[in-house]
Amino acid sequence: MKTRKLHQSLFLGLGMLLVAGMSSCGSAEKAVTTKAQGEELIEVYCTGPDYQSDKNYFRASAIGESLDQMVSKKKAGTNARAELATLIQSTIKGTIDNYVNSTELNNVEQVEERFEGLTREVINQQLNNIKVICEKQTRTGENKYKTYIALEMSAKDLEEAINQKLSQDDKLKVDYDYEKYKETFNAEMQKLEVQQRGF
What we know:
single chain, alpha+beta, 2 domains, 3 strands, about 15% strand, Lipoprotein
């Protein structure tokens, strides 16, 4: 009787080991299959919702890679600044177009040209006031350095700097309406946030 119970216990134990072994083989097989298909989950630093532009901040992320650590950092910074500048210029262009079209100004083309020239000047100055909000460095298997970086510029600071420049311009002083411009700029920032968030 005792021998029979012992055999049943051994049989049950072996059965459980066999089931556990089979299920672990299955999961290993799945992992290999996924990798064999060329898919591998990677982490990209300094990206995601916290690093996207919203109605208050322009933000841009970039990556730089080099055998030299400092060159990697410079590449990432340059790429992020270029991305940020493009984003800002696009938003300001939309603001100017909508502002000029919504007001009754004389010689619209000349006014628009003057706005664009002055805002471009301000944007170039403001690009010196950007803030690094994320920076990470890694070293790859090929012994290269990879820098991940995210930059940010305050929309409010940019809008105030543009207002100051536009309101001091003799050619625009008569036609320039700050409240109308600010309202148009804020609407463009809202649009940007929606585009970046994807909703």
